[in-house]
Structures are given as structure tokens and as C-alpha cells.
Design a protein that fits this description.
Residues 319-1034 form the Exportin-T C-terminal domain. The protein is an all-alpha fold. Helices cover 66% and strands 1% of the residues. Helix 42 (900-911) runs parallel beside helix 46 (982-1005). The longest helix is centred in the middle third of the chain and has 25 residues, at 675-699.
Length: 1117
């Protein structure tokens, strides 16, 4: 059937058969008639924009005659109502397409023909009340009026609606059509609209609505005098009092007010309409009409503000008149803004923002200040804005039973209501912050008074969790118990006040006064503006008010969030830690009745204790851990496994429990805590986790556990909880500037032993269950934390960890593991060299094995391709981390040296030449650059391989040779790798041949490949790395380096080794000779060009040579 329909559409005469089908008597099925119209539409559009293609004139003429005949016979009676609405709408659209293709050249009477079918007279010129009264309403055909309005609506949609995309030819045609219609046809339409409003407003309100709607959309491009005249305005204004039509009349006036005009003309329009007076006389009860009137007031205000502030196109009298009208409108705007429904309030947001912006600009002018009326407006506006910040009394909060745990931070699920209210608050905050800039004293006074009154009333009468409104005639009169709505507002105002202060001056709770150079003291904020002292006072009042005792889910999270956001408060109010921490541990804190609130507060508690000074925590440690102990019970939920693996959404409630575990670790870390107490508490935390993990492990065999998701998840949770506790302890301090030894340990020996015992258990479980992704994930997290806290004491676990992980890990896991290894080598540097040297080959073998495995399989899927790219990037980044940590010697130990070229062959031959991934290309050449520097230019390790900042380079350059930081040599010593080591020397020799035979040719091959685009920014970075590689190889070719004169290299102060131009005697430079006499001639370069290239390579700095090299490749590719 579908194929047949398509063949009909494609047939040259298919439209004719469909035209007959559509107009046939008796009528065919609605579905077939709809298809017929679609075929006719296709024919019309195929006739071209101007209806002059494919012999269209005859087709369009036949179609027009048939459709007009159909409309005149079928749609002029009650049968019109029986026609399906979708058929009527589609036919109106078809006739519109027909008109667009033929008006005015072939169908100049388009509008006149359709109006004639309505029974309305053919009238031009401006409509008058007399002309409308002379119309015989009995002769008007309401069915045809409705169809005419459908056609005119479709005409606007096709010609004017900005949402419809149009080509240049269509836009030009539409402009011509509008010009032609303006001659007489628009006037005809205006007569129709006016007559319908006069005669049918009562009997056919839907037709009157249609007329008003069309007036609104057509006013943007027709002569406004056709509808803005006394007869029209009078009838439209009268309709503002008609319940069925007032909303549409309001929309119509809004469009009229928004018509594009010059500012003086717009002022004349607004004065003619007396629109501000009309708005003041309207009474509106229902919310929809109030919103419509608000939008009209908003449009009027925006236009008046433009005229008032427009100094170039308006006279001073115009400016003054516009402002006078705007000032008269301001009380009405305040009324809309204070409306109980947010839809009405938000309808005037635009004009409120425009007025405030204008006030701000006025105030910024020299010697300019706001008038008394403007200040009075702000003084009334500010309390309205503050009051609108509160929730509505009937806001639908979920009950404790309905609330659910949301994201990893346990936030409440934000539905549409919450999202809309959050957006409303953001808009109101913008207005309030603007007032803070214009009138800081007013801002300060209003915000503080409102919040302080709330906290005082809460302190005196308490807060209701059940009731939204205040007791005993609420509204803040202070005579009864506070409703939760205003209690929440007090906390929100405190937060808003602090955020304003933070964005304006930064939060520094350092006392009430700041000393000035002249010895005087000033407030922490400008005169009358927000101050640290006031914020501190508000936070103190919120504590003393007891507002946090309110069980409503809106209160406690905001209360605790304020003390997390403005944690500096406790630097000057240390006595406040106790009541706030007590509240955290109370019934409305970590034990809140709402589950979603409860877990969010766990997150806030973690942030709270984390930001407190460690020295002050010891006194709370025992009570803290006792209070949270029963919340630490772990219950694995296997249903979360799929979510965690597939969507990365975590493990449900357990993710929030981790905040509690880490908080416990933080509370155990203070050095002021007695070690016996710490040990007791640590055992109290660890023992259930140890015994739980051992119980699962002993309950069945490893094979059985691997088949049981719940058991695996339970063990995963136990291990991760241990890691989270350890995460609360501070990282060990490592001095990596010399030989990387731990500085004095903050952990006591007994604490370290407990952590090492945990590490033993963790690694034992991993070695038993290496095939489980969950166990690998948990073990990597926990043992990485052990390394951070224990330092070198945990390094012996690293080989066992890596062996177990590498044996079974997937591609994405290996990428994460490489990142972890990079951090380890960077942190411990020479200290980790022996361990890193043992891990090198197994890890590299795993990387290349997975790359080959994925490459040989199906990598057509986007996910697989991305995983492959991530692994390549992670691998190269890890190799770079080894070099930047000055651990290049791990490649040269006995077990690794024979494989040196094998390791780097894929980097130079595959990763560096893959033009589809320029980021990896750049990394690959960076790795090669480091390797050449390490084993060809400075094989004695006198210079760091890490990137030097200018300041660090200057420092090292001025340091005596004997005092140099030589981490590379320290790493070699840790590996017992002497300067004369035969295996290392042979490996460097093989590497040199590899560089000349593979790396250097690749430097010329890569930029000339078809997929390499020199103009691309990423490719440009690759070229820069290639240029650096070539210059480093040239440096290695200098005779004093190539001959092994290490005394010369040692005497060379950094960063000369890294800074071209290279210079030197090119006749004695091995690499220069290789380039000029071997490689470049083999690539087709004449001798003179080769000599010029080598000279440029030696004499230009990095930036200059990169530019030269790019031009050389482009010109000679």
C-alpha cells in the first residue's frame, strides 16, 4: 500500500486523480481524502516558489477552481461542522500554498474570493463603526468565516512565523506578497475582523477570538492604523470585560504594543491607547487572565523603558513623557509581582529587570542619583521580592514514606515543580542582587530584618513541621508558631546573604574589624552593605532559634548546607561547633525521617567535619563514632550492580554510607587524640568489616563466591568501606626532591599496623577473587588509599596488587589502572623505582595484548573505538609520567633492557603515525622526545626530564653542580644500575639505531600522510612535537655528547640542554651528517635543500624551527 501511494505521488497526473477523489460525491473516507490533499500539496510545491515550473499554470488553475467550488458548495452549510477538523485544517493549508504560488500574478483576487464566500461585503479603507453596523449579520456565514480564519492563520504561519525555515527566494516572494496585500487586501481583512467583533462577540465567541488572534499576528507587518483607531480600540477595550474574550483581547493588545516602531511613534501609540490607565482599571480574578494582563503590562513597561532611556532618537520631552507613564505603571507591576501565583509574578520579570538595569546605569553616571520616586519604588519592590522567595503554602512535598534516595549525594529528586521553583528563585535573586548594587543599605536592611524576624519568632514560638502558614494570623506578625514556609525562607535568606557577600568581597571570617594602614578600623563591608559580622550574626541566630528541630524536609538540609558553605564562621565562632555537630547527630540530622534528606545530610556531615581544623576534632571523636555506628551496617543490594556498571550511577544507599565511613576516618586522624582511644575506635570500626569479609570468604569456595553477585557485592562494600575510613586520614608527606623518603609520620606505629593488617586482608581477597570486576574495583580503591596514607610502608603490596589486577582487567579498568600507576610513580619517584621496574613489562605486555585483541576484533562500535582511544592515551600518559618522574632507568634494568626497542616500536610505528587521533600522536612524539633526551642526550642523568618552569630553570641554572637535584641518578642507584652497566649501554645503543632508523623517518612521514591536515590546530601541536624531537636528536649528535663526554654534560647548566638553537660544529655532528647525506637525499631532497634544512635545524629556536619545518613539509610533500 505504501509503495502504491508513493507511485501516485510520483505520477505526473496523480494530483488530478487525487483532486477528483477529494471533491467526489459521495465523500470518500477521511484517510483517503487526507492522502489526496497531501498529493495535491506535493504538486503545488513542485511548481516552484512562484508557481511557474513544470507547466504549473494550468495545474494550479484547475486546482484552484475545483477547491473553490468545493468550499463554496460544501463549507457554506452546517455540513462544515461534520467535516473532520484535520481535513478542514489541511485544506486551509492547501489553499494557502496555492495562494503563495499564484498571488498576486495569477490569483490577484485570492482574499476577495474567500471573503465573498463569507457573506461579508467587499470593503476597503479604514473600518468604521457605521460601516460595520450597516453589515447585515444574518447574511454572514459563520462556517466560511471560520474557514477564512484558518486560511489566514496558515498564511501567517507560512509567510511570517520565525520558527519556519525559509530560503532567500521564499523570503523575497513573501515580501512581494505582503507588499501586494498592503494595497487593499489587508484593509479587506481588517473590515472582516471588525465586523466579526461587532456582530459575533456574543453569539460566536470563538470567531471573535479568531479575529483577535489574527489581528495580533498580522499587526507585525500591516499598517497599524487599520486596527489602532478609535472604532477598533473601543471594541477591543470593551472585550477586556467580556469573560470569554478578555484573555484573547489582552494577547492582541500585547502584540500591538510590541510592534516594531521608532521610539517616538511607539510613545504616540501608547499615549493614544492610554494603556496604563486601562490597565489600572482592569479587574481580574482568574489566574490565566491575570497572567495575560501581566504580560501586557510587561510589554508596555519594556517599551516605555526603551523610550525613556533612548537619548538619540527621542527628544527630552519624549523621554520625560515615557518615564512619567512608566512611573505610573510601577505600582501595577508591584501588584503583579506580589500575586500569589508564580505564573502571574513571572509575567512581569522582564520589565522589572529592565527597570533595575536602567536604575543601575543612571546611578553609574557622574553626579547622578535616584529620584525620591525611584527610591520609593525600590523600597516597595525589595520586600515583595524577598517574600516571593518563599515556597507556596500548598507546595507538594513528598511524605517521609514517599521520599527516596536520589543521587550519590542523596539529594531530593527534583521534579517539574522543584525545577520551576528553583528557576523562579534564581530570577528573583538576580533582581535582589541588582538592588544590592544600587541600594546596598536597603538590601542589607531588608534581608537582615526579614531573616532576623523569622529567627526571633522561631526562637520564641517554635516551628511547625506540618503547617505551612504561621499560626495566629501569620504573615510574620510574630504572634504564634512559625510555619515551615517562613522558617525555610529565613535559612534561604541567610544563604543568599552569604553568597552575595562571597561573590562581592569574598568570605573571610577573621573578626569584626580590619585594621587599616592608618591605624583606623572599618567594617568588613562597605557602609550599609552586607558584612561578615551580619552574616555571622544570622548564622548564630539560626543556631539559637532551634529551627533545625523542625522535621519538615525543607529545613534541615538548608540549615546544614549553610554551615558547610560558610565554614569559615567556625574560625571565629568555635563554640558553635558543638551545637551544630550535635544537631548533625540528632533526630533531624543523620537520622532524619525522610530517607532522601537523611542521606543528603550524611554528605553535609562529611563536608562539615572535613573543613574543621583537625586540632579541634579529638574531643568529639568517641561520641561521633558512637552516634553513627548503627548507620554503618552494610547491606548489599545486588540490583545496583547493573546500574553501577552500565550507567555509572553508583551503589545506592552504600554510596552515601561512604561519606559516614570517611567522616569516621577524619575524626580518628587528629594528632591530639589519645592513641589508645584511636586504636579502640579504629578496631570498633574495622572489626565488623574484617569479620564480615572473612565470614563471606569462609562460607564457600572462591568459585561459588564468584557465581554469587550478593556475596561479591558484600565483599566489595566491606573493602570499599575500609578504604573510605583510611581516606579520612591525611596523606603521608613525601620529600621527592632528593631520594624520596617519608617525612616524620603522622600515624602512630599501632595505627599503621592496623592499616597494614587491612591491606593484608584486602590483597589476600583480591588474589583469591581476581576474576571479579567488583573485587578489583574495591581493592584498587582501598590499596590506593593505603599507599597515600602509609607511603613507602605500603609499596610492597603494589606488585601483588598490579599482578592481580592485570591478570583479569578489562580495557576500561586498565586505563584507570595506568592513571593510578602514573600517580604512584610521580609521588614516590626514586623510592618506587625497584617496584616500578618489576611491574613495567607485565603492564606493557597487558596493554599491547589488549590493543591487539581489540584491534583484531570488531571495533566498529563507537564504545569500542572510544575505549581503544582511552587506553592508548592512558598508556602514553603513564609512560610520560615515568619520564617526568625521572624514572627512565627502570627501562634499563637487566630484565627490561633487552626489550627497550620492542617497547618503543609500537609507539613510533603505530601510535605516532595514527593521523586519526592527533592527541595520541602528540603524546607519542612527546614520549619519544623524553626517551631521546634520557638515553641519547643525557644518559648520565644530570638533568631532570620533567618540564621546568622558567623560575625553576633559573634556580637550577644558578645552582652548583654538586648541589644539583639529580633524581634520575638517585633512581639508578636505587636500582643498582651503575654508569658502566653493560646491558644498559647496549640497550641505549640499540635505541639510538632505532631512533635513526624508525623515529626520524617517521618525523618526515607523518606530516605528509593523506589524513594529516596542517591547518588543523591539533595537527599543529603534533608538528611542534616532531620539530622538538628532531632538535633533540641533533643535540644528541653533537660530538661532545655522542662521544660520551659526561663531564661536558654535567657542566651544562639546565635548561640549556632543552633550549635550541643547538649550534655546534655541524661537520662533526653525527645526526647532521645522517640527515644531510643519507635520509633527506633518500626522501628526494637535493643536496642544497638538505644542507639548508640541517642549518635551520641547528640555528633556529623551537618556535622558529616549527614554523620552518611546517613550511618545508608543505612545500616539498
Amino acid at each position: 500500500a505504501t509503495q502504491y501511494c508513493e507511485s501516485v505521488k510520483a505520477s505526473p497526473d496523480g494530483w488530478r486523480a487525487c483532486l477528483e477523489l477529494f471533491t467526489a460525491t459521495p465523500e470518500k473516507t477521511p484517510e483517503s481524502r487526507l492522502f489526496a490533499l497531501q498529493v495535491i500539496d506535493a504538486m503545488i510545491m513542485g511548481a516552484g516558489v512562484f508557481g511557474n515550473e513544470n507547466g504549473a499554470a494550468a495545474k494550479l488553475g484547475t486546482t484552484r477552481a475545483a477547491l473553490l467550488e468545493f468550499v463554496s458548495t460544501r463549507y457554506t452549510s452546517a455540513a462544515y461542522q461534520n467535516e473532520p477538523a484535520f481535513i478542514r485544517n489541511t485544506l486551509a493549508h492547501t489553499i494557502t500554498l496555492l495562494a503563495l504560488a499564484t498571488y498576486p500574478s495569477k490569483w490577484p483576487t485570492f482574499v476577495k474570493d474567500l471573503i465573498s464566500l463569507t457573506g461579508l461585503p467587499d470593503a476597503t479603507g479604514a473600518p468604521t463603526e457605521d460601516s460595520a453596523r450597516r453589515v447585515n449579520s444574518a447574511s454572514i456565514n459563520p462556517y466560511m468565516v471560520d474557514f477564512l480564519f484558518k486560511v489566514l492563520g496558515a498564511l501567517d504561519e507560512e509567510m511570517v512565523n520565525p520558527a519556519v525555515p525559509r530560503g532567500a527566494e521564499e523570503m523575497s516572494r513573501n515580501t512581494d506578497i505582503k507588499d501586494s496585500m498592503r494595497v487593499e487586501d489587508v484593509a479587506r481583512m481588517a473590515h472582516v475582523w471588525y465586523s466579526i467583533l461587532i456582530h459575533f462577540s456574543g453569539s460566536h465567541p470563538e470567531l471573535a477570538k479568531g479575529a483577535l488572534r489574527l489581528m495580533g499576528v498580522f499587526v507585525s507587518w500591516i499598517d497599524i492604523s487599520l486596527i489602532v483607531n478609535q472604532p477598533f480600540v473601543s471594541v477591543v477595550f470593551s472585550l477586556l470585560k467580556a469573560p470569554a474574550l478578555r484573555q484573547q483581547a489582552c494577547h492582541c493588545l500585547t502584540e500591538v504594543v510590541g510592534k516594531g516602531m521608532s521610539p517616538p511613534e511607539k510613545l504616540e501609540l501608547l499615549q493614544f491607547l492610554s494603556i496604563v490607565d486601562v490597565l489600572g482599571q482592569l479587574e481580574f480574578g482568574d489566574v490565566e487572565f491575570a497572567e495575560a494582563v501581566g504580560k501586557l503590562a510587561n510589554a508596555v513597561g519594556v517599551e516605555l523603558k526603551v523610550i525613556w532611556m533612548e537619548k538619540h532618537l527621542c527628544t527630552p520631552d519624549n523621554n520625560a513623557a515615557a518615564y512619567a507613564m512608566l512611573e505610573k505603571l510601577m505600582p501595577l507591576l508591584l501588584g503583579f509581582l506580589s500575586h500569589e501565583y508564580d505564573e502571574v509574578s513571572s509575567s512581569v520579570f522582564t520589565v522589572i529587570g529592565e527597570i533595575l538595569t536602567a536604575f543601575k546605569k543612571l546611578q553609574q553616571r557622574e553626579d547622578a542619583s535616584l529620584s525620591a520616586a525611584q527610591q520609593d519604588f525600590l523600597s516597595h519592590l525589595m520586600p515583595v521580592l524577598v517574600d516571593k522567595l518563599k515556597y507556596s503554602d500548598d507546595y507538594p512535598w513528598p511524605s517521609a514514606a514517599e521520599a527516596s534516595v536520589g543521587d550519590n549525594e542523596g539529594s531530593l529528586d527534583e521534579g517539574d515543580e522543584e525545577a520551576l521553583f528553583s528557576e523562579l528563585r534564581r530570577s528573583l535573586r538576580v533582581f535582589i542582587d541588582t538592588i544590592a548594587h544600587i541600594a546596598p543599605d536597603l538590601y542589607n536592611r531588608t534581608m537582615l530584618t526579614a531573616a532576623q524576624d523569622i529567627f526571633k519568632q522561631c526562637s520564641q514560638y517554635g516551628t511547625s513541621s506540618e503547617r505551612a502558614e504561621d499560626e495566629s494570623g501569620g504573615g510574620g506578625n510574630g504572634r504564634g508558631q512559625l510555619g515551615w514556609v517562613r522558617a525555610e525562607l529565613g535559612l534561604y535568606l541567610t544563604q543568599a546573604y552569604g553568597e552575595r557577600l562571597s561573590s562581592n568581597k569574598g568570605l573571610r571570617f577573621t573578626g569584626p574589624k580590619y585594621a587599616q594602614p592608618n591605624g583606623q578600623h572599618t567594617s568588613s563591608a562597605g557602609v550599609g552593605g552586607p558584612s561578615i559580622d551580619s552574616l555571622s550574626e544570622l548564622m548564630t541566630m539560626s543556631i539559637q532559634s532551634g529551627v533545625v528541630a523542625c522535621q519538615h524536609p525543607a529545613i534541615a538540609p538548608l540549615f546544614f548546607e549553610n554551615f558547610v558553605r560558610f565554614g569559615g564562621y567556625f574560625d571565629v565562632q568555635r563554640e558553635a561547633v558543638t551545637p551544630v555537630l550535635t544537631a548533625f547527630l540528632g533526630a533531624t540530622g543523620i537520622r532524619h525521617a525522610h530517607a532522601s534528606v537523611r542521606v543528603r545530610i550524611w554528605y553535609f556531615l562529611h563536608r562539615f567535619v572535613k573543613q574543621l581544623p583537625s586540632s579541634g576534632l579529638a574531643m568529639y571523636s568517641s561520641d561521633f563514632i558512637s552516634a553513627v555506628n548503627d548507620l554503618l551496617l552494610i547491606r548489599a543490594d545486588p540490583s545496583t550492580i547493573g546500574n553501577a556498571l552500565a550507567a555509572g550511577t553508583g551503589y545506592g544507599l552504600f554510596d552515601s554510607q561512604l561519606f559516614l565511613f570517611e567522616s569516621c576516618g577524619i575524626m580518628l586522624a587528629p594528632t591530639g587524640l589519645d592513641d589508645s582511644v584511636r586504636m579502640s575506635l579504629l578496631q570498633h570500626l574495622f572489626n565488623p568489616l574484617f569479620s564480615g569479609a572473612q565470614r563471606v570468604m569462609n562460607s564457600r569456595s572462591a568459585e561459588q563466591i564468584l557465581q554469587d553477585p550478593r556475596s561479591l557485592l558484600q565483599i566489595h562494600h566491606y573493602l570499599t568501606a575500609i578504604g573510605s575510613i583510611v581516606k579520612g586520614f591525611p596523606d603521608v608527606r613525601v620529600d621527592s626532591k632528593t631520594v624520596s623518603v617519608n617525612l616524620p609520620h603522622q600515624l602512630s606505629p599501632s595505627t599503621a599496623q592496623v592499616l597494614l593488617k587491612a591491606a593484608d586482608m584486602c590483597i589476600a581477597i583480591l588474589e583469591t577473587l581476581p576474576g571479579s570486576h567488583l573485587i578489583r574495583e574495591a581493592a584498587r580503591f582501598t590499596l590506593s588509599r593505603m599507599l597515600s596514607v602509609l607511603g613507602a610502608e605500603a609499596l610492597p603490596y603494589l606488585p601483588r596488587l598490579i599482578d592481580s589486577l592485570v591478570s583479569s582487567c578489562a580495557v576500561e579498568e586498565l586505563s584507570d589502572l595506568l592513571g593510578f600507576l602514573g600517580l604512584v610513580v610521580f609521588k614516590f619517584k626514586p623510592q618506587v623505582a625497584p617496584t616500578a621496574s618489576k611491574l613495567l613489562l607485565p603492564v606493557i605486555s597487558k596493554v599491547y595484548g589488549l590493543l591487539d585483541q581489540v584491534a583484531q576484533g570488531s571495533t566498529s562500535g563507537t564504545d569500542e573505538v572510544l575505549l581503544l582511544q582511552d587506553l592508548r592515551k592512558a598508556y602514553l600518559t603513564w609512560i610520560m609520567a615515568i619520564f617526568n618522574s625521572d624514572l627512565d632507568s627502570i627501562f634499563l634494568v637487566e630484565q627490561n633492557a633487552p626489550h627497550l626497542v620492542t617497547i618503543f616500536q609500537p609507539i613510533a610505528g603505530q601510535l605516532a603515525t595514527d593521523t586519526s587521533n592527533p592527541q595520541c600522536q602528540r603524546l607519542a612524539f612527546s614520549v619519544l622526545f623524553k626517551a631521546i633526551q634520557a638515553w641519547m642526550a643525557d644518559d648520565m642523568g644530570w638533568h631532570t626530564l620533567a618540564t621546568l618552569t622558567p623560575s625553576a630553570a633559573a634556580t637550577l641554572a644558578n645552582t652548583k653542580d654538586s648541589d644539583r637535584v639529580v633524581l634520575r641518578q638517585a633512581a639508578a642507584q636505587a636500582l643498582e644500575l651503575g654508569p658502566d652497566n653493560k646491558g644498559a649501554r647496549e640497550a641505549r645503543g640499540h635505541f639510538k639505531q632505532f631512533v635513526l632508523g624508525t623515529v626520524v623517518p617517521a618525523c618526515f612521514d607523518v606530516p605528509t600522510r593523506a589524513g594529516f591536515n596542517m591547518a588543523d590546530a591539533q595537527a599543529s601541536l603534533v608538528v611542534a612535537e616532531i620539530a622538538a624531537v628532531l632538535q633533540m636528536v641533533l643535540l644528541a649528535g653533537r660530538p661532545e655528547i655522542a662521544s660520551g663526554n659526561q663531564a661536558w654534560a654535567a657542566a651544562m647548566p639546565p635548561p640549556q640542554l632543552l633550549t635550541p638553537p643547538i649550534g655546534g660544529d655541524l661537520n662533526q655532528n653525527q645526526f647532521a651528517a645522517f640527515l644531510s647525506s643519507a635520509l633527506l637525499p633518500r626522501l628526494g631532497c637535493p643536496d642544497s635543500m638538505a644542507a639548508e634544512f640541517v642549518q635551520a635545524l641547528a640555528s633556529l629556536d623551537q618556535k622558529q624551527f616549527k614554523k620552518y619545518f611546517a613550511a618545508f613539509i608543505s612545500n616539498n610533500a
